[in-house]
Design a protein that fits this description.
Blueprint (H helix, E strand, L loop, with lengths): L1 H17 L7 H4 L6 E8 L5 E8 L7 E4 L5 E4 L3 E4 L7 E7 L2 E7 L17 E3 L5 E4 L5 E2 L13 H18 L14 E5 L6 E3 L2 E2 L2 E4 L10 H14 L17 H21 L8 H27 L18 H17 L4 H12 L4 H7 L6 H19 L4 H5 L7 H13 L3 H7 L1 E3 L6 E5 L7 E7 L4 E6 L7 E4 L6 E9 L2 E10 L1
Helix pairs in contact: 3-4, 3-5, 4-5, 5-6, 5-7, 6-7, 8-10, 10-12
The chain binds zinc ion (ZN).
Amino acid sequence: MNRYLASFGFFLALFAKISAQDFSYLPLVQEGTVHLTLFVEKVDNQSGQVHINGSDTRQPNVPFLWNFGDGTVILGWFPQDHTYNDKSRNYVVTVSSDGESASTLILFRAPEYVPVELPNRSLVMVETKERTLISRWYDPVETRRFNPEDFGVLNRECVQHVASAMANIQLEYTNNKVWFCDNQSFNQIIYKAGTSGGYSTWYTSPPSFAVGSDAFRNQVWWNTLSHEMGHNISLNFPSAYHIGGRIDGSANAIYSETMAQILGLCTGYDLINQAKQFGLSDDLAYLLRGEFNNGFRIVRDGYRSYIQNLAPFVSWNDPSTLADETFGVFMTLAFEFIKWAEQSDEKVSWYVTRLMDFFSYFDKNWEDQYDRSSNSQEGNSFRSTLMVAAFSFSFKEDLRDHYRALNFPIDDKVYLDLMNQVTTGSEGLKVWSEISVYPNPTSDFITISGLPRGTEVKVTIRDLTGREMISMIAAEPSKPLSIDFTGFKAGIYVVGIYESERILRFFQIIKE
Ligand SMILES: [Zn+2]
């Protein structure tokens, strides 16, 4: 473990510079119809022979260009058989035709990962036994376990590691204003769903979600895992006034589905772009790309159909119909947010964090106006204005005209009230953004600056097992605080900053 941790800081520094923009959803924004598809029908681990099929709906009359990833390049039709001599590694097969190409990963062995330690407050565990989870809102939840035969080429440990990395990223988005189970962790449980899809049971302690029985079998449902975790985060937020349950019912989706899509897909973006930092091999990153790209395509297509149908704004899902009438609205919001976040100057995570900052002001007053149980005109207009104000705050740009053109009903008074509350209503946001800890990674000292003045500020340093190394009261919060790390082993440490025993922020610091 220490060997890996020693190189962790190096990867962090190097990787951030070289491939910050390595993975992006932007190429899919303009993507036209995909004609070319391929799929692996058989992989023989003994002989090394693979059988690959596929199709091109354009039915070209010149053969396809096949690159098997082992130096073999041929022209040929579907299907193709190919034999690999070296079965100690995996191969990306690419097929091209007339400006389009498709690729797939041939797996002879499980994709590798380095189990870099992750903070023990954002772990995700796949259920190994059945139990009853207590509920904070609705009925208790009976879990179902996943058995060894439910896993394919990626085993339980690998799934848990990647899912925990996702949860770690999502927790960072919230500035730790999410509800913490027993005041200290947001560890989540994945159990087997009774149905074929996934769903969030955010209200259990600890928070949990379910996925279908084949979620881990062949292609792991990475995007679904990230999406359901996005529900868990955004519905258990803010810590003092969980939004979930206060907006449930037929009007929930404009907030809950928009947020789950944004959190889920942005997590994919950040995870793939920091794959090395989380110990993920190129093969694993390849599999993640495929799943998250497909997730983004669904969102994009939802946006496209909303525009094609002349933007029929609805925020109320009529319970008497099978379809969810709000689908196009939340997909449009999620699509545009992700696209703008990638196209704008700051990092994607910066915009997501501001979005969460906005919703951290959710209170009884917002809940009443959200009007979750009736299809009222006021409720409809508030829900629409709430999302537009949140986006406007996030991107520091008044987006009212943009969304009016997409038929979103916007109440100017509500918009201004919301913006006022969030930008001037509290010093809280300023405090969040002003605290900084540097340098990171460090080899000797860290400095904490921007601590809130006039209150008792406590600083703790814990290692990844949760053991407290240092606990101190900042004598003069107005002055930068210096903490000696020279006696600590190389690894990740969590700096906790508390104001009158209330968690203000956590930072992860790497000691080299
Ligand atoms: Zn969902």
